[in-house]
Amino acid sequence: MEQFQHISPADTKTRLDNNEIKVVDIRDEQSFALGRIPGAYHLTNASMTKFVQDSDVNVPVVVCCYHGISSQQAAQYIIHQGFKEVYSMDGGFEAWRANYPFDSGEEK
């Protein structure tokens, strides 16, 4: 795959529940701390190198942002780092929050 794909929050939830994907959240630190998809990795410019080094490129990655716009550029960047299957979640965290449980409070 040389291009990221789009994924709905519903499909993200199903695949997350089945432990088939890794979710990364590119929102700012405060927004991430206040609410995030369960198990999401906070991906920032500072944590990108560690994420790439520590991750299995064969595990599908779903990128989440606020509304599903910024995640598209980040997903394309991640695919160019050698990951085989990368998605941008349509509607972002706002769409997730409207429909599914999320973790809140201090970053784990």
Commentary on this structure:
By secondary structure, the chain is an alpha/beta fold. It contains 5 helices and 5 strands. The chain has a 5-stranded parallel β-sheet. The longest helix has 10 residues, at 70-79. It is globular and about 30 Å long. It starts with a strand and ends in a 9-residue tail after the last helix. 32% of the residues are buried.
Secondary-structure element order, as H and E? EHEHEHEHEH
The value of Rg in angstroms is 12 Å
Helix content: 25-40%
Mean pLDDT, as a whole number? Answer: 94
Beta strand count: 5
List the helices and strands and how they pair.
Blueprint: E1 5-7, H1 9-17, E2 22-25, H2 29-34, E3 41-42, H3 48-54, E4 61-64, H4 70-79, E5 86-89, H5 92-99
Parallel strand pairs: 1-5, 2-3, 2-4, 4-5
What is this entry, summarized?
It is built from 5 helices and 5 strands; from the N terminus they run βαβαβαβαβα.
